[in-house]
Design a protein that fits this description.
Layout: H1 5-18, E1 21-22, H2 23-32, H3 39-51, E2 55-60, E3 63-68, H4 76-87, H5 91-106, E4 110-111, H6 112-117, H7 131-143, E5 154-155, H8 163-176
Helix pairs in contact: 2-3, 4-5, 4-8, 5-8
C-alpha cells in the first residue's frame, strides 16, 4: 500500500513519541496498522529521520532503539499557533486570526483539523466556508493524497486588510529563512524643516 512520505513520517514520529521503539517493533506496529513495509525499508527510513534530527538513535545491543529528538522544528501549523497566541490574547479572536492567516497563505478554506493542529478550537463567530468552496479545497487536497472527510467543517475569513494577519505572515517568513538581521525594527523619522 502506497503512503505519501509525509504521512509515513508523521505516523512513525507519533508512534516513537508514545514509546521508544526498535526497528522490528516499529515494523510490527506499522504492519498491524495496515502499513506493510519491509523491515529494511523501515530501518533506512528511521536512519534518515535520525540523520535529519527528528529522531534519536541509541544502541541497546543487539538492537537500535529510536526515540523522538528533543530538537524538532515546528511545523507551519505550530508556528502559526505560536505567533497568533503571541499577537492576540483573546481566545475567540485567536481562532479567527489563525483562520485568516492560513486562508491567506493557502488561498483556500481551512479545515477543522488544520485549526486544531494550530492548537485552537473553532468558535461560533469564525465564518464557515460555503459548501462549494469546501468541496473545491477538499478535492485539491485529495490530489495531493491528503484525504479530508466530506463532513469536516471548513472556515474562511476573507479580509482585504488585516494588519495582524500580515504581520504574522511576515514574521513566519523572516523566522523561517533566518532574515532577522535584514529587518529594521524601527524606522527613523525626520522632522520636516520649514
Amino acid at each position: 500500500m502506497f503512503v505519501p512520505e509525509r504521512n509515513l513520517k508523521e505516523l512513525i514520529v507519533s508512534a516513537v513519541r508514545a514509546q521508544e521503539r526498535s526497528i522490528s517493533g516499529l515494523a510490527r506496529d506499522l504492519s498491524q496498522s495496515g502499513y506493510k513495509f519491509h523491515r529494511l525499508f523501515v530501518a533506512g527510513y528511521l536512519k534518515a529521520l535520525a540523520d535529519c534530527g527528528l529522531l534519536r538513535e541509541k544502541e541497546i545491543p543487539p538492537a537500535k532503539v529510536y526515540t523522538t529528538s528533543a530538537y524538532r522544528d515546528k511545523n507551519l501549523y505550530e508556528s502559526v499557533g505560536m505567533k497568533v497566541r503571541a499577537f492576540e490574547t483573546e481566545p475567540r479572536e485567536q481562532s479567527r486570526l489563525a483562520v485568516a492567516v492560513l486562508c491567506r497563505l493557502f488561498r483556500r478554506p481551512v479545515f477543522l483539523r488544520e485549526l486544531k493542529e494550530c492548537g485552537f478550537d473553532p468558535v461560533a463567530d469564525v465564518p464557515a466556508a460555503s459548501k462549494e468552496e469546501r468541496e473545491d479545497a477538499r478535492r485539491a487536497l485529495a490530489k495531493l493524497k491528503i484525504q479530508v472527510p466530506t463532513n469536516e467543517p471548513a472556515y474562511y475569513v476573507e479580509e482585504r486588510r488585516n494588519e495582524a494577519r500580515d504581520a504574522i505572515i511576515a514574521d513566519l517568513l523572516v523566522e523561517k529563512y533566518d532574515m532577522t538581521p535584514l529587518v529594521l525594527e524601527t524606522r527613523q523619522m525626520k522632522l520636516a524643516e520649514r
